[in-house]
Write a structure and sequence with these properties.
The structure holds two protein chains of two kinds.
Chain A: E1 2-15, E2 18-31, E3 35-39, H1 46-53, E4 61-66, E5 69-70, H2 76-86, E6 87-90, H3 102-113, H4 117-130, H5 146-158, E7 164-168, H6 176-191, E8 195-199, H7 203-208, E9 211-216, E10 219-223
Parallel strand pairs in A: 3-8, 3-9, 6-7, 7-8
Antiparallel strand pairs in A: 1-2, 1-4, 4-5, 9-10
Chain B: H1 3-15, H2 18-54, E1 60-65, H3 88-94, E2 100-115, E3 118-127, H4 129-135, E4 139-142, E5 156-159, H5 161-168, E6 177-180, E7 183-191, E8 205-209, H6 210-217, E9 224-229, H7 235-249, E10 256-260, H8 261-304, H9 306-314, H10 319-355, H11 365-392, H12 395-400
Parallel strand pairs in B: 3-8, 5-7
Antiparallel strand pairs in B: 1-9, 1-10, 2-3, 2-6, 2-9, 4-7, 5-8, 6-7
Helix pairs in contact in B: 1-10, 2-8, 2-10, 2-11, 8-10, 8-11, 10-11
The chains are: A alpha/beta, B alpha+beta.
């Protein structure tokens, strides 16, 4: 069964007295375990799509089925719960909380979800090891390099073991070398069965994905998987 | 989110911005300190006055010659003329009333006291044995005035501690002869030093039998008659009975004023209590100002941390958690301010008490509780708006502000 099913999704923004169709009647299906790159010029609607997939935004029309469940009709708190347990976010600018240490940043989703401290500690220790951050656990974000910060962010995104990771330009603020390390990390997660959706400007990075979606003016212009573009 | 985690999160957020946290804590502290200190002052004044009146004696009813319209203490009552004297026999008659425990007539005047070449001005109180019991006077040496016929007093005197020191120095005073006015009297007792007692400093007092004082000042009338009722409940009865006895003895004319200590005390108590409330109200305004400052600080915090709020939402924090996090931070700021202000206020009151030992500047419990409660209340009240704003932020918009 498809992890994500979008049917007739519309998202309009009001800019002054003109209406912008950020997403226009979008139909899309993404299978569990897939590795998808979303590409396209600025303003093509790819960020809007990612926000909708991450339940940070609501469509004006259409249905979004996540794991077969219609999540568009959920209340904000129910959506928050879905975000907490089913979706991990990786941002271009890392979005670490500056006053918390690396370990506390990684633990933040579990803290918010009310997981017991002992369990949190165990999982954070494992994550620090997996992302080779052992020696940086007590460092604040401003004491970390860009690559380390993004590793902390990825560790945070995976700490709740979600089946879906949404990455918005994850290498946009990194140099080529560290960017590649981060991509390897994300691909490693995908290899273990996590569905990975990456929004990127970088054609080289897009080309590594199993499936490429190219967007333009709120439409799917091109889909390498050959599903009927909407 | 677990309460302990919520607490730690709010604490880290507060300590993450030390200047703004310190400022809002300080504002709240000043508000609470003002409440504590001002009510300590107001209540101290009330206690001081009440204490002064209580030092007159307990269950006291006071008869003044002359009729005055009001029941209060009035400087004019001390110098009014009255058609009929209030005499020692009047006082003796009151003693037979059933609600009356003790009676002491009192004549007051100033004279000179001298011995062995030393001389000084002295306030002379002419009264009887029971006066000591009514006023709670205790002799440090010797005995009080003897219990004798009020109209035939012995030539004896009980002197205050300061008089003894100035006249006799280190020599023994008991049994010595002193001259008061044109009379030679024998010292039979020395009062324990007590200090101030509402206008009459007992340390500088000479107490002689009432008949001696009347002869000394060549008068028949009394300054006061002090009556001690049998109990607190008997005070109104004692007042009525004393009035009835005097009216009868003065041919149906009510030419005396009878006041009870209770009435005077209650008036002052009410007056100064209202004053304390008023200053507490003024101080509470500074608490409200502090609350508004906390609100501003929290609104700035929400704006500063918009990106963080977006992140928390993306990580699955429900609106309630975000609201609680910001509310706990506001509560923490005001709680810290309240505790600090409480300590500051108590320290201030302590300094006041050190500077003015006679002034009991203790903040009343109700004021402390109300001050702390208002501080926390305004903190939460004014913290709610920013917290709600944070919880309602649109996550997409919030995440873009980083």
């Amino acid at each position: 069964m498809a992890l994500i099913q979008l049917a007739g999704i519309c998202r309009r923004f009001q800019l002054g007295d003109t209406t912008v169709n950020a997403l226009a009647d979008l139909n899309l299906q993404i299978d569990a375990g897939d590795y998808v790159a979303v590409m396209g010029p600025s303003g093509s609607g790819k960020s809007t799509l990612l926000n909708l997939l991450g339940l940070l935004d609501r469509p004006d029309a259409g249905h979004y089925l996540l794991e077969g469940r219609d999540v568009t009709t959920l209340s904000p708190d129910e959506q928050a719960k879905v975000r907490s347990q089913r979706i991990g976010f990786v941002f271009q600018s890392f979005h670490l909380v500056p006053r918390l240490t690396a370990a506390e940043n990684i633990a933040l989703p579990m803290t918010l979800a009310g997981i017991a401290p002992a369990e949190r500690e165990r999982r954070v220790a494992q994550a620090l090891k997996d992302f080779s951050l052992d020696h940086r656990a007590d460092h604040k974000p401003d004491q970390l390099s860009g690559g380390q910060r993004q590793r902390v962010a990825i560790a945070r995104a995976t700490i709740m073991q979600p089946p879906l990771i949404l990455a918005d330009e994850p290498t946009g603020n990194l140099d080529r070398h560290t960017g590649e390390e981060v991509v390897h990390l994300l691909e490693g997660l995908n290899a273990r069965g996590v569905t990975l959706i990456v929004v990127t400007h970088d054609p080289a990075m897009g080309a590594r994905a199993r499936r490429q979606l190219v967007m333009e003016d709120g439409h799917l212009k091109q889909d390498s998987a050959g599903h009927a573009p909407g | 989110m677990r309460p302990a985690d919520l607490f730690r999160f709010a604490r880290d957020a507060a300590t993450g911005y030390p200047v703004r946290t310190a400022l809002s804590v300080l504002a709240m502290a000043i508000g609470v300190a003002a409440v504590v200190l001002l009510t300590a002052l107001g209540d101290g004044a009330r206690r001081y006055v009440v204490g002064q009146f209580s030092s007159l004696g307990t269950n006291l009813v006071i008869v003044l010659p002359g009729r005055t319209g009001t029941g209060g203490f009035n400087p004019a009552t001390a110098i009014t003329n009255t058609p009929r004297d209030l005499t020692v026999d009047d006082a003796a008659a009151i003693k037979r009333a059933p609600a009356v425990q003790r009676v002491a007539p009192l004549t007051v005047g100033t004279s000179e006291i001298s011995t062995a070449g030393r001389l000084r001005e002295v306030m002379v109180a002419g009264t009887t044995h029971d006066y000591f019991a009514i006023r709670g006077f205790v002799t440090a040496q010797g005995t009080p005035l003897p219990d004798e016929d009020w109209n035939r007093g012995a030539s004896v005197v009980v002197i205050g501690a300061k008089i003894r020191e100035e006249l006799f120095g280190n020599d023994a005073a008991i049994g010595q002869l002193v001259r008061i006015g044109d009379r030679r009297v024998r010292v039979i007792g020395v009062l324990k030093p007590v200090g101030q007692g509402l206008g009459m400093n007992t340390d500088e007092l000479a107490i002689v039998p009432v008949s001696l004082a009347q002869a000394l000042f060549n008068t028949n009338t009394l300054f006061r008659v002090l009556i001690e009722a049998r109990s607190r409940d008997a005070i109104p009865a004692a007042r009525e009975q004393a009035l009835a006895v005097l009216k009868q003895r003065h041919r149906g004319e009510e030419d005396v004023t009878v006041i009870t200590q209770d009435a005077v005390l209650a008036t002052f108590d009410k007056l100064l209590g209202a004053l304390t409330l008023a200053v507490a109200g003024i101080a509470a305004i500074s608490l409200a100002v502090a609350g508004i400052l906390v609100m501003n600080v929290m609104l700035v915090a929400v704006t500063q941390r918009t990106g963080e709020i977006g992140l928390l939402k993306a990580l699955g924090a429900p609106a309630r958690t975000i609201r609680l996090a910001f509310l706990s931070e506001a509560a923490m700021l005001s709680a810290m301010g309240a505790v600090l202000g409480y300590l500051l206020g108590q320290a201030g009151a302590f300094v006041l008490r050190q500077l003015f030992p006679v002034f009991p500047a203790y903040a009343p419990n109700w004021a402390v509780i109300a001050g702390l409660g208002t501080a926390l209340g305004t903190g939460l009240l004014f913290g709610y708006l920013p917290a709600r704003r944070a919880a309602r932020l649109d996550p997409v918009q919030a995440l873009m502000k980083h």
